[in-house]
Specification:
Blueprint (H helix, E strand, L loop, with lengths): L10 H12 L5 E6 L7 E7 L4 E7 L7 H6 L9 H13 L7 E5 L8 E6 L3 E3 L8 H19 L2 E2 L17 H16 L3 H5 L1 H13 L7 E4 L8 E4 L4 E3 L6 E3 L1 H11 L3 H4 L7 H24 L5 H17 L3
Helix pairs in contact: 5-7, 5-10, 8-10, 10-11
Organism: Paenibacillus solisilvae
Protein name: Phosphotransferase
InterPro entries: Aminoglycoside_PTrfase, Kinase-like_dom_sf
Length: about 325
């Protein structure tokens, strides 16, 4: 798969949509593809008067996980304009900082894919501040922790997507993660000998972890893949959560088990004393197995940053095998 580096939306049509969105003419000076994500194409639009915004395009042809998206059930979805719109509305209602949605186009009358205009946050990813002075880290990570707690403490008795009329699912949510981890282990074992040799041992370990979990009927709202590359920090040191399509009501431990190995300063700022250690352990292994297969798939499907994809795969294979020690 080769990504189109130029904006696929014809400029005149884009200008018309900008008129609808902003109520006055902004003449486009430049469009730059500045996001190397696997799920959507993102452009920064700079206008002649200095105004900037972000253009999100949900183009399945440019998605590196087409097969998984097409096979996903409703509650496994993490791609699409509807999810972004619903989650953006919910997060802002809860007082969580995320870029504002200016305009959504789902007509597909002129252009075949949904797209949106979103607030441009000028700044760096949160990871840029891991080595900052403690006083600077405090300015960023303490408010970020408070936002996370507010988000995670938004509770519901059924897990699932916000804004869906069905209201959620009553069966245990950890079953979804366990079954996916088993499938990702099977896939990765086809190509990685070290996983193939240890596949049965890892499977038995997952079985034991899942069997230890007790039923639950209280869920918090989580991002689902909250790494430091999914948080932008503006020039006022305010953190904004991005790439929110996969957000949903779920076990909060699913989020924390991911953040634990993605945030260098997790223990200092983000750790919570009320987490279920059994869930933390199972979800952490499931994350590593899923990322092992995910990195492998990116390598196989032409992701432009092959070194990053290989690093994701190798590091998570190693972390998966450490569970056997």
């Amino acid at each position: 798969m080769v990504r189109n580096e130029g904006c696929p939306i014809e400029r005149n049509y884009l200008s018309q949509c900008m008129q609808d969105a902003f109520g006055r003419s902004h003449r486009i000076a430049s469009l730059s593809n500045f996001h190397g994500g696997a799920q959507k194409t993102v452009f920064r639009v700079t206008c002649e008067d200095g105004f900037q915004f972000v253009l999100y395009i949900w183009d399945m042809a440019n998605n590196y996980f087409q097969e998984e998206i097409q096979a996903a059930s409703d509650h496994q979805e993490s791609f699409g304009a509807e999810l972004f719109e619903n989650n953006n509305r919910f997060l802002l209602q809860q007082g969580i900082k995320t870029p504002a949605l200016y305009y959504m186009n789902k007509e597909r009358s002129v252009y075949a894919n949904d797209f949106a205009f979103v607030e441009y946050i000028q700044g760096d990813y949160l990871s840029s501040y891991f080595t900052a002075e403690r006083s600077v880290q405090d300015q960023i990570f303490i408010p970020f922790r408070d936002q996370l707690m507010r988000m995670h403490d938004s509770r519901r008795q059924l897990w699932g997507k916000a804004g869906r009329s069905a209201g959620g699912y009553s069966e245990s949510c950890h079953t979804e993660i366990y079954e996916n981890a088993i499938e990702q282990l099977r896939y990765a074992s086809l190509y990685e000998d070290c996983l193939a040799r240890n596949r049965m041992r890892l499977t038995r370990l997952l079985d034991g972890f899942a069997a230890a979990l007790t039923p639950r009927s209280d869920y918090g709202f989580i991002h689902s893949e909250l790494g430091p590359d999914h948080v932008l920090v503006n020039d006022k040191l305010e953190p904004y959560i991005i790439d929110i399509e996969g957000a949903m009501f779920f076990d909060v431990e699913h989020e924390h088990s991911f953040m634990e190995f993605r945030f260098d300063n997790y223990r200092h700022y983000l750790d919570r004393a009320d987490l279920d250690e059994d869930r933390m352990r199972m979800y952490k292994l499931c994350h590593h197995l899923s990322l092992s297969a995910g990195g492998l798939k990116l390598m196989q499907r032409g992701f432009p940053n092959r070194l990053l994809a290989e690093e994701i795969m190798q590091s998570n294979v190693e972390n998966s095998l450490r569970f056997l020690d």
